[in-house]
Amino acid sequence: MKAIVYERYGPPDVLQMGEVPKPVPKDDEILIRVHAATAAAGDWRLRKADPFLARLFNGLWRPRRVNILGFELAGVVEAIGSGVTRFKPGDAVYAACGNGFGAYAEYKAMPENGAVALMPANMTFEEAAAVPVGGYTALQFLRKGKIRPGSRVLVYGASGSVGTYAVQLARHFGAEVTGVCSTANVDLVRSLGADQVIDYTKESFAEDGPAFDIIFDTVGKSPFTACIRRLTPNGFYLRAVHVSPLALLRGLWINLTSGIRVIGETMKESAEDLAYLKDLIEGGKLRSVIDRRYPLEQAAEAHRYVEQGHKKGNVVLTVRREPTCPA
Questions:
Q1: Looking at residue 305, what is its pLDDT?
Q2: Which of 73, 142, 159, 264 is 20 to 30 A from residue 295's alpha carbon, by CA?
Q3: Where would I find the beta strands (DSSP E) of the chain?
Q4: Is 325 among the domain residues?
């Protein structure tokens, strides 16, 4: 089968189309014919080995554990193992691949009990592929922040993959939502349900104002001290990206010396959360935001664009060009 592979760390051009063996599903696995995947921050960081700790996971000098990227996908079940009961051939599914990655290929084998669910019936494959990681990350962090009706929530990086879902989900849970983004994305964030939008190029949320119950940094660029100052005494500072050791220590100190909770754990792939998101999507409560689409063979160009850090929502790689899921 065709797949985008990389044999060394480096710039986007290390991604090359190649031929690799087609997976054979084990007894507890399903084989997915991939229709769409995404180019996400986790993909380019592993490709580039940034941060350096990525090399401890994937090989010090060259990629050894993962050489096909792609953290999320949507497609159709082509075959199932002898012990599979949740899915059948022909099912349209969406999935998060976890640390195995592998979505930049024509086929992907996944455990039946992995983060796989029937995809929303009202989405195309491209729209569905953009949901899993950003969607369940936003959902799980907001739950850790004990979101409830009336919560005052600030989403920093509200126009990104996690941020666009965080704004919509916070609104769904009955919160009062403030989004932080650049001028070009103000209208988008407002259209997703934000009550107020702060254009960080023109004003700073660090200035005095009402306290927030939750500040959710989806991009790792929020000012730590200002965020702590703008939280309620028992508020939550949620950070969805890996931070420096110093930032970890500062968060631990706040947790030990105040009622504020600084939370930055890695989220877990969850089939149950994907099913929950599916219901919200089919109910018209949630949508994916797609900035650009690239064919799979242009994965390097997609990575080059995403690495600039200015995408709106998600960037999708189209593996097969069918526009809708099967009936």
A1: 97
A2: 159
A3: 2-5, 16-19, 29-38, 72-80, 92-96, 107-111, 116-118, 152-156, 176-181, 196-199, 212-217, 231-239, 261-263, 290-295, 314-318
A4: no
